[in-house]
Amino acid sequence: MIPTISAFERSPDDGKGLARDTRVRWAFEEVEQPYKVRLVSFGAMKEPAHMALHPFGQIPTYEDDGLVLFETGAIVLHIAERHTGLLLEDENARARAIMWMFAALNTVEPPIIERETTWYFERSESWGEQRLRLTEERIRVRLSQLSARLGDTDWLDGAFSAGDLIPDFPCA
After folding, report:
1. Which of 31, 57, 96, 120 could disulfide-link to 83, CB 3.0 to 4.6 Å?
2. How many domains does the structure of the chain reveal?
3. Are residues 95 and 78 in the same domain?
4. How much is the pTM?
5. Rounded to 5 degrees, what angle do the CA atoms 138, 144, 146 make?
6. Per-residue pLDDT tens for 116-168?
7. Please, what is the angle between helix 109-117 and helix 128-150, to 10°?
8. Inter-CA distances, 66 with 21, 69, 132, Å
9. Rounded CA gap, 135 and 88, in Å?
């Protein structure tokens, strides 16, 4: 069976993967796994059929042979565990790749999402500009820390892994 993921039907890229589905698509491409994309409108994301797949009414979702997953990190980890190429054989290297996946989603990405939320929904408030500056400074700090860790290397922990594709930071 070919897995199916969901993506925004109407987005700046017309559903081609510049949202959170980017990471899932990248994981599939890295492991050369074919997949289908089900485009979902913003309205349809809040309807019962989609909410049954993703209780928070977001994208992406993953469906394959009766298994339904949501949350980018969980989907990418599932793909990485089922296919070679995204998690290294060495147990410690695998653990570090998973650590970087969590770090991207829980430490680096939140100020980026906060900034986007402020830009789209709060910038016209009296405090909007100040909040934007604060979130942009948090982003600079996190990305500086990440850059310092990366140094002159291409990958976060030796060889390419799932830990390198999660810090893609697409807009949601």
Report:
1. 31
2. 2
3. no
4. 0.88
5. 105
6. 899 989 999 999 999 999 999 999 999 999 999 999 999 999 899 999 988 76
7. 160
8. 20, 10, 43
9. 35
